[in-house]
Design brief:
The protein has 77 residues and is of the alpha/beta class. It contains two helices and three strands; from the N terminus they run βαββα.
Length: 77
């Protein structure tokens, strides 16, 4: 299952990403790095099940695409 985490480069989001990846999930992080840090997710980048976008959740077209990916993933599993 693909999971979308907004604010995923923050303290809680990065740890949640790490946990979900350890359980075999695919994780996409969306973060504008206004309070989060790329360093919080740097160690996750090598994981094939991890994707990230540096952008804001206010970018409606991008957010729609990311949500569509999650929904498609739910139907594939």
């Amino acid at each position: 299952m693909r999971i979308l985490i907004t604010g995923g480069a923050g303290f809680i989001g990065s740890h949640l990403s790490e946990f979900l990846l350890s359980k075999g999930h695919k994780v996409t992080v969306l973060d504008d790095l206004s309070t989060g840090s790329i360093h919080n997710i740097k160690h996750l980048k090598a994981n094939a099940n991890f994707e990230y976008c540096i952008d804001t959740a206010m970018n409606k077209p991008l957010l729609s695409e990311l949500v569509d990916d999650v929904v498609r993933s739910m139907h594939e599993d």
